[in-house]
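ok trying this again, last paste got cut off
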Amino acid sequence: MGATVGYPIVAIRAFIEATRDSGYKGTSSAIAELVDNALEAEASAIEIHIDEADSDQKRIRVTDNGIGMTGSTMQLALQFGGSTRFNSRRGLGRYGMGLPNGSLSQARRVDVYSWQNPNVIFASYLDVDEIAAGNLDSVPEPVRFRPRSPEEYPSSPTGTEVVLSRCDRLDFKTIRAQCRKLHMDLGRIFRKQLYLGKSILINDVPVKPFDPLFVADGVNISGATPFGPPLAYEISVPGGSGSSPVVVRFSLLPLEQWHSFSNEEKNRHGIAKGAGVSIVRAGREIDYGWYFMGTKRKENYDDWWRCEVCFNPELDELFGVTHTKQRANPTEQLNEILTPDLERIARELNNHVRKVYTGIRSEQVRQSGARIAETHDVLMEPLRTRRNDHKPRKSLAAGYAIDSQALEDKSFYLPSFLHGKLFVILNEEHSFFQRFYGPLSRADAVQTRHVLEHIQLLLLAAGRAECAMKTSDEKNVVRRLRESWSNALTAFLD
């Protein structure tokens, strides 16, 4: 046989260009890989700086106070698939793809500086253009980096700095917009570490945690309450090496307090269209979506509750974790364990929210006419109330309210004017309420609500006219007219 031509397993030039499209959702996900590495290196403080190296090229520096790297470790870290923790199940990393993959997905060059002594700094790099031109086919051996001034020496005794330059794939053109997005995303992804006291700064501004359950304080508003106790599962680790816990928490957002937020506020706080499940691996969020819900479809009512599923890396195969740690693809086996409980609770929460919302909406509908009446009350002669000396005085402003209850009185409505407010109580025992007004107040159609609103105005106007009567004789005549009118209405309906 003739000599065979060897083909390398990886065509390095094409690979480097192709791997830049490796599936990161965006800049935040790529930078999160570098934060992962810092946390794995026991860093307690991480600083991210974004600036412009020149007029059209942005640069990102990620600096940590972790344990630092030796020269050989640095070479391994810059190698695709190279890692001292390959396939480790003890921390955030696993595959050794984060540093080169995350960096080059956003920039054409990455430089790494690391020190275990602030006076001895090693440096190496990867450059997409050098690799594509055939000038670089292996990770350069780290060299001693000598700062040009005392200010360039690191402030921590050990640590690492990763510098992304010639950034050509950032999500935003402006530094301000990119920083704002990073604050929100990193605050959510690393909320557990931030609550434990870890520090992340972006252009010298601290990242605040964002709790998607709205239970804990942070950049988000808080006020949600846990819905039931946490669900705890012990799930067998694939391969028969014992079991590992999965903990599920649900929270219920305060609909009664927050329903009046404007649409802009609901969007800004992450309430509207925010229904879903946060998937947290080793204290780090890797995905957020509609998981373990079975046949339940997502509805607007589901915006008012949240769920969090926490697991350890031993269960990566069951959760279908990708090497970029930004997606989950649960297996059928895991779905069979978790879905029955999670779907059932999700339906309970949906029904609860639906009932609360219906009550709130009914109250809003019931008082819509009252709000209109209050707005237009200034167009009329003020109502008069009685002081303790029984002399009449003008009310400065009239508030309005409509309520309903079962009354022994045969009238359909009873008006009263107390402490500057006009009350109209509707009789739930009256035929008109049972056959028309009650069903109308529970209807959803916009046209129906408009009809109800005008009926309310009709009743409030009648109540106001009755309360405006000055003498006892006038009041008695109007009261008898109201009672007679109510009786005639009952007769007509029956």
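PB: full thing came through this time. The chain has a mean pLDDT of 87.
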